[in-house]
Design goal:
Layout (H helix, E strand, L loop, with lengths): L4 E6 L3 H13 L3 E7 L4 H9 L3 E3 L2 H6 L5 E4 L6 H10 L3 E4 L7 H13 L4 E3 L7 H11 L6 E11 L17 H17 L4 E8 L5 E9 L5 E7 L1 E12 L2 E5 L13 E6 L2 E6 L4 H15 L7 H20 L3 E2 L1
Parallel strand pairs: 1-2, 1-4, 2-3, 4-5, 5-6, 7-10
Antiparallel strand pairs: 7-11, 8-9, 8-15, 9-10, 11-12, 12-13, 13-14
């Protein structure tokens, strides 16, 4: 393999065109060499992004020997199918979150990738922003005392829901899969693995969760309180509360979408402290997985971590639908 990972893109999805593909192109150890889509739109998208090769089927792209890795931003219900096919084609993989619709699907992906010697990572880009490392440093330094609770919210007001793929249950739609997964992931980043969850949701007539909220139980009686929604104003934040203070991260998951960017805020009886932390999380994500591919190492955010995240999301959905506390 060359000193740069050669990437192919499966689909012309907006998240890829607007955010992830340009970030891969900004990275210092990557190049985007091909794009595939089942339609004529691939030509316009590839021209717009200056991608040299185009395919009108995903299968054709996977057969290209000049492609080392693929990015999969397909609808949620197609992630498992194309991860398995990419693995069988010996292509390394960056797959959009949620990698699967259940923990069992992620286990299938793990086996396929291991059997084929393929490196895979779920695209939780927020984990590569340095503001979270700074939050952990404050916690480790005892700035807020002993952690007692964490709150996390990710919501937005969906426009034109009748035509939005995230409102279709057969495509893996729902607020929890789409943005609520970030709240669960960030709890586990700071608090470890939860032991149980109780959750409620507002479902539409098709069974898609429009809004969800709940409480995760962690060891030492620490709790994680989350909410997520397609019908609330935009928020993507978390707050960690301790015995001596609290830390607030107002743009935890998409700091790139706000003029203020990344920042963390500490509040204690002694006053307030703020750190401004600007970082290109999408580029950092692309460079990390590409370095892992070049070095043959496991990503810091491994698929085993993805599996544990999906176990919690499975439990959240079970609790929401049954109205009971679920052990994880």
């Amino acid at each position: 393999m060359s000193q740069k990972v050669r990437w192919g893109i499966l689909s012309t999805a907006n998240i890829g065109r607007k955010l992830v593909i340009p970030a891969i192109q900004r990275a210092n150890n990557t190049e985007v060499v091909a794009m595939a889509s089942r339609g004529e739109q691939v030509y316009e998208a590839a021209k717009e992004l200056q991608i040299p090769k185009t395919y009108t089927s995903y299968e054709e792209l996977l057969l290209d020997p000049e492609i080392d890795a693929v990015y999969i931003p397909l609808p949620n219900h197609l992630h498992k199918e194309w991860v398995l096919k990419a693995a069988a084609s010996k292509k390394h993989i960056l797959v959009e979150k949620p990698a699967g619709l259940t923990a069992a699907e992620v286990k299938e992906m793990q086996k396929a990738c291991a059997d084929n010697g393929v490196i895979i990572m779920e695209a939780f880009m927020y984990r590569f922003h340095q503001q979270h490392e700074a939050v952990q440093k404050w916690i480790d330094e005892g700035k807020i005392g002993d952690v007692q609770m964490m709150r996390a919210s990710f919501s937005f007001q969906m426009r034109d829901p009748e035509n939005n793929i995230r409102m279709k249950p057969e495509f893996g739609g729902g607020a929890m899969y789409d943005v609520g997964c970030y709240t669960i992931n960030s709890f586990r980043y700071f608090l470890g693995e939860p032991t149980s969850v109780v959750a409620e949701a507002v479902f539409n007539e098709n069974g898609v969760d429009l809004t969800a909220h709940g409480i995760l139980q962690f060891s030492s009686n620490v709790k994680g309180v989350f909410d997520t929604s397609f019908t609330m104003s935009g928020r993507n934040e978390y707050e960690i509360i301790g015995t001596e203070g609290r830390i607030h991260v107002p743009y935890a998951y998409r700091p790139d979408a706000y003029p203020e960017g990344g920042s963390i805020h500490l509040y204690t009886d002694e006053g307030q402290e703020t750190q401004q932390i600007d970082h290109d999380q999408y580029r950092a994500q692309a460079e990390h997985i590409s370095k892992c591919i070049l070095d043959g190492t496991t990503p810091i955010y491994s698929l085993e971590n993805t599996y544990l995240n999906m176990k919690v999301i499975d439990a959240v959905y079970e609790s929401m639908r049954k109205g009971v506390r679920v052990t994880i």
